[in-house]
Design goal:
Layout: E1 9-21, E2 26-37, E3 44-48, E4 66-68, E5 77-81
Antiparallel strand pairs: 1-2, 3-5, 4-5
Length: 87
Amino acid sequence: HSFARPDEVRSTHIDLDLVLDFADQRARGTATHTLLRRDRNAPFVVDSHGLDVQRVVDQNRRELPFRRGAHDALLGEPLTIELRPDT
């Protein structure tokens, strides 16, 4: 069960750079995804739950638009990232 569409775009590797704040019960940092794109026009969709995404950038540090979908009790929320053709 997932909002993701791995037949269009999927993550093949994730590099996490996190700082854990145990007092605030938070993790802050970045997640860098290496993508396999089968459909150059499709967005990258991932499942999320309680994430506070500040911004999304591509490999050239260009901002990418993103949006959260409606919450589902089982799946959380879809996070949809619009990719450029050269991302």
